[in-house]
């Protein structure tokens, strides 16, 4: 929704292409399960942190959506769905199939609703968003614990990732492409009655509930956290998000005039666009990773938080990363 508002349709198209392409590529990158397992063991702490951030991001977003449309029970509904799936995870594949069918039904319902056309014309500075999106979606899947589970459980990972992401996931992203700007208008302009987007709300509740359950299941199964501690942490963070977003609703950061809720939301995206990809590119050299992260953080912050005519700073950040990676590899030759 933010990409469509800030950059227009090219950013939404790039989001779709890089998201699907990056996820599919993971299935082809690992030659066998042994290589995949070695990667998972090597990056175990980063994979765990990725899941913690993903859980926090999903819960925050749903709490924010609930606050915007005046439905505080949205997040509890997500947690209830996640709880049921978590405790019936032996049939999680059937849950995934059922949710896919329901999501397609909601997609059809949304297309048939009386939602007004929205403007997603390209903004002049959209090219600056392409490389950060590409880097984020190409590298982030490798730290997703649920993707590693899918690889391990598949008899033919290449075909599973090709069909799973290139067909099924792509069809769901088609829904995202259609609703993104409408949802953005509900969040930022209140220009569309919230009732019109209830098929979208239903879709998000299902998908986020499933995502929370999948990550929680893997975190507990692989003993990253005890189930009781993980469950209590999710509950406490959910209550915190609801309370925080109730208190700061419609607040802004005075000196830059940025909406506080949106700023917090974009902070989560910062991890996927910069921190995690940079870790995979430079993680073997932790001091270098931390230095480049410190240097690129202002560029990414200005580009994503302020945006607009300041979006060029994203290109500067990507140029810094590319230069460091090239110099590093030449030094290793």
Automatic annotation (TrEMBL):
The chain crosses the membrane at residues 12-30, 67-86, 93-113, 125-147, 159-180, 192-216, 228-248, 263-281, 288-306, 312-327. This is Uncharacterized protein. Keywords: Membrane, Transmembrane, Transmembrane helix. The keyword DNA repair does not apply.
